[in-house]
Amino acid sequence: MTGNSAGNEAGKDSLFIQEVAGHQALYKRIIQLFHSSTKAAAFMLIAAIAALVIANTAFYDQFYAFWHTEVGFFFGEAKAEMSLAHVINDIFMAVFFLLVGLEIKYEMTVGELTNIRQALLPIVAAFGGVFFPIIIYLIFNATNPETAHGWGVPTATDIAFALGIMALLGNRVPNGIRVFLSTLAVADDIIAILVIAIFYGQSPSAFWLAAAAVVFVALIVMNRRHVYSLTPYILVGIVLWYCVFMSGVHSTIAGVLLAFAIPSGSRVNLKSFISWSGNRIKEAKELYEPNDPVIGQKDYIETVSRLSRVARQVVPPATRLENKLYPWVYFAILPLFALTNADVSFVDGSLGNIFADPALYGVFFGLLIGKPVGIMLFSFIIVKTKLASLPEHANWGHMFGAGILGGVGFTMAIFVANLAFDDPAIVTTAKLAILSASLIAGVVGFLVLFIQANAARKKGVAYIATAPDGAAHPASDKEYMEAGKRMLEEIESPLLKEEIEAAQREGDGYAEIVVELGIDGERSDRAAAEGSDDPDRLDGAGPDERKRD
């Protein structure tokens, strides 16, 4: 297809003029690229591999020296400086924790953590996935004073890598398992944040802790006084970061505190906005002169500008900030963190007698065995006691695969290792254990879920999460929701579309559709969901009643 024909095709029935419709389609693809969990995981993996390769070449000394170059600013005789590595670990990672805090806030406001019965399974599983790695780590290290303090290293799941690996299976894995793993990782992150704040800071300064508390109270007051502009929060958040940094508590905690203070509501009266915006649209329609240059239609431009200014403010500040941060965090900050922290050298002798270091075994087996065992055991207990049930359309095979992926602890584990150990050799050993355990957990977890996905393919079904246009969901869900939307758009049956819309309405906008596929894996125009009393599911044939095309 030529560039002109592509532009013509993109411009058909487009909101934008034909000449720029192709540009808009490209822009949309770029946005989708930078909200892709699989590509984010790939970027991080490439950065980690690059760090490993460089660390084992003759260029490592220059590489190490570069990241430890001091940068900063000065005013007169006063100066402030830190190395590039510390900028990434102390400043950029605070932005990562800000995004984590926003994702936690979303889950606690409208997500899985709002319904205690729905959230109970992943929350309890998360505690199991923290408890057992600690036990395993201490089995190897409890009597070693140099490494005993590192018990927090194998406790956290890397949400970006874990969900990125699961996303490779697409809609062959039930959305409930993806939600289970993401909620578990969020709960994991909450525990990890508490662990970092309580156990892995320096001796805290009472003065700077008090200053940080005062600043945080100021942020809460701003929230309560309905300040909805992001700029004041960012400026005061910088002050909060400095106070926390000076206090001895790790500065990244400031990112989480700032996230909790940012409003998740809208400054616009949404009921009034519907009628007000309708009036502005009518007014713009009356003012628009199709034969006159737009630049000269001042009344028209002023009307649509007012509509645009107010419409932007409908979106809550927390949502706006999350959408802005997501691509920067997952495609810049975390790859930079991987590049500067995955530098394990095998050729310079820094590992020493690695197999004599108990930290290696505690971290490795804590992640690879402790995480899945804890997740599965606590999940089994909570399900068998009927306090919770398995995710919709999921089985214990899915749960086992998700539990193994819980052992992918890359980012948070390396972050805690840097805080837990003073000896660089032990840090390097811990990093090697983290990288190897995460690699094995990622591969094995993928294979277990692939077996389940292959069984779904043989049955000719795909699981698609769907929501109406405009429904709120976190930035990390965009790729999955867009894939489901594209597949559902291909469905031609009007009756089926009515059933899907009804399921969305009954499920507060969300539904998981089990779509029947042909033998070759292509979508057919029939879909059904397993029979259930759950209103979020479509009524239809059970899995044994489906017919292939």
Automatic annotation (TrEMBL):
Transmembrane regions listed in the UniProt entry: 40-60, 80-100, 120-139, 151-170, 177-200, 206-222, 234-262, 325-347, 359-383, 395-420, 432-451
InterPro entries, per database record: Na/H_antiporter_dom_sf, NhaA
Pfam family, one: Na_H_antiport_1
Main location: membrane
The keyword Transcription is assigned to this record: no
Signal peptide range: none
This protein's UniProt keywords: Antiport, Cell membrane, Ion transport, Membrane, Sodium, Sodium transport, Transmembrane, Transmembrane helix, Transport
Location in or out of the cell: Cell inner membrane; Cell membrane
Domain of life: Bacteria
Reactions catalysed: Na(+)(in) + 2 H(+)(out) = Na(+)(out) + 2 H(+)(in)
Region (Disordered): 522-549
Membrane association type: Multi-pass membrane protein
PANTHER family linked: NA(+)_H(+) ANTIPORTER NHAA, SODIUM ION/PROTON ANTIPORTER NHAA-RELATED
Function: Na(+)/H(+) antiporter that extrudes sodium in exchange for external protons.
Protein family membership: Belongs to the NhaA Na(+)/H(+) (TC 2.A.33) antiporter family.
Stated name of the protein: Na(+)/H(+) antiporter NhaA
Gene symbol of the encoding locus: nhaA
